[in-house]
Design brief:
This protein has helices spanning 8-22, 40-52, 58-71. By secondary structure, the protein is mainly alpha-helical.
Length: 74
Amino acid sequence: MDLSVKSNENVAFMLDEMQRQMQVVNSGVMKSSDYDVEQYDELKELYDYVMKKNNFSIRETEGIVQELSELRKK
């Protein structure tokens, strides 16, 4: 998958992978339909951060989920 291309499919892929990596149980917070391609660069930056880590503290997970909620469509 070429994540240098800004697309809805890549947004969905990144959110799915972040959810898997962070072991988020509540998938409702990371639905791709809630995000706009205009936020792609911010989502990609967050994705890159998440994929580099193997473990997340509760505080880190909450912070990432908070950032994701701020990027959601209004």
